[in-house]
Design a protein that fits this description.
Oligomer: single chain
Strand order of the largest sheet: 1-2-5-7-9-10-11-13-15-16-17-18-19-20
Number of strands: 20
Largest sheet: 14 strands, mixed
Distance between the termini: 66 Å
Shape: globular
Number of helices: 13
Structural class: alpha/beta
Length: 401
């Protein structure tokens, strides 16, 4: 490969080797590959340094040096927005068969000094920021540092401690922004961040972050006046009355609801939701799934696309109950239910039940030819299709009269 090769072809080839957006490529591996490419020749070094797509998103870890971070930021190009993932942990990182120990991880105060001196001057170009650490305190230190700068392009922010150590809760300052529309809080309570952030949000993800506090839940939901997607992951709330519920904004079109015990299903009943384009439910077992349906049957009845996952392979009663509750579903994904999804569909057909809105169902790779033929004979939409991993495998089957 030489200088006669068109730059766009050269760049396309480079992306086959190094792609920072490929989740399968570890950051350490990406850094090593870029360095190797630069060693080939002066021309290659120039092409790599000038190709901004090879340099963002940027992952910053405790062993990231100021010189490496500075080079990554400068090579992103003057006009390109930058995506940052900051992992504050000092644990081991594995790239292929190579293990990098935490020997070179710098102390936290030295690391934060680098962030303040090298990263923060680029605040006006950063579009997304994810801050991850095992403890809330360290995440809050970065958030408070960010609050001292203006972030005109920041649209996505994730604050992600992995566990709560029982220390007193602290208030989080947040960056000065025109509008964050995608916000994720892990462990951190919404009560710890400024309420002014919520009205601009289009996407909100909460993980283990309410701890039963109804007042905090109610305040947040009422502030989500322009919300489009809501993700609740193992979030608990205790309603003051059995029928207490908060109306979601009509702008909401997607709900992801993940939980692992009965108490967490109650939060679904605390949401007064209109019609959804997409509902994604991930439950631990059949009983948990039935609790979710009982808590808010209308959300199952009036969602057009539904994805169901039952992690514990105990009984198909929960998945069958979900099918019975559905009224308006057009696309149904039960691929993560395994054989339970197939058995529930077969029982639904055997009982002669009708779901005339359902146009396609995907049960992953667990269908056999006999299952497909039996389910395709059910009382579904006239253009009903059986699918596997998004591909049509069953013939279209007319609705039976």
């Amino acid at each position: 490969m030489n200088e006669s090769l068109a730059p766009e072809i050269f760049q396309a080839i480079l992306l086959q080797v190094v792609d920072p957006r490929d989740p399968k490529q570890a950051w350490v591996e990406i850094v090593d590959q870029r360095r190797t490419l630069c060693y080939v020749s002066k021309y290659w070094e120039k092409m790599v340094a000038g190709f901004s797509e090879l340099w963002t998103p940027i992952t910053i870890q405790r062993f990231t040096t100021p010189s490496l971070l500075s080079r990554c930021l400068k090579c992103c190009g003057e006009d390109r927005v930058i995506d940052i993932t900051m992992d504050l942990g000092a644990w081991k990182v594995t790239a292929k068969d190579k293990v990098l120990t935490n020997v070179k991880s710098v102390p936290m105060d030295q690391f934060l000094e680098m962030i303040d001196g090298v990263l923060m001057p680029f605040a006006n170009r950063i579009a997304s920021m994810s801050v991850e650490h095992e403890k809330e305190r360290e995440v809050s230190m970065v958030a408070n540092m960010m609050a001292e700068h203006s972030w005109p392009r920041l649209q996505k922010l994730a604050l992600k401690p992995s566990w709560y150590d029982g220390s007193p809760r602290r208030a989080f300052a947040l960056p000065q922004v025109h509008q964050i529309n995608d916000f994720q809080l892990d462990i951190i309570s919404p009560r710890q961040v400024p309420i002014s952030i919520f009205p601009t949000l289009h996407i909100l993800a909460l993980r283990e972050s309410l701890n039963g506090h109804w007042n905090a839940f109610e305040v947040v939901i009422r502030q989500l006046t322009d919300i489009r997607q809501l993700k609740l992951d193992k979030v608990t709330v205790t309603r003051p009355h059995p029928n207490s519920a908060v109306r979601m904004a009509d702008t909401l079109h997607t709900l992801h609801f993940y939980y692992e015990n009965t108490g967490q299903a109650e939060i679904l009943g605390a949401l007064d939701i209109g019609r959804l384009d997409r509902l994604s439910i991930r439950a631990y077992d059949s009983g948990d799934l039935r609790d979710a349906i009982t808590s808010n049957p209308s959300v199952f009845a009036h969602s057009r696309e539904i994805s169901i996952c039952q992690r514990n392979d105990d009984t198909q009663e929960g998945t069958f109950a979900a099918l019975v509750a559905m009224r308006d579903v057009v696309c149904l994904d039960m691929g993560l239910c395994g054989s339970l999804g197939v058995e529930a569909l077969k029982e639904f057909v055997r009982q002669g039940r009708e779901l005339s809105s359902l146009e396609n169902v995907d049960c992953g790779g667990v269908f056999n030819a006999e299952d497909m033929e039996y389910i395709a004979g059910g009382r579904f939409a006239e253009n009903f299709k059986v699918m596997q991993h998004g591909q049509v495998v069953g013939k279209e089957q007319g609705k039976k009269n």
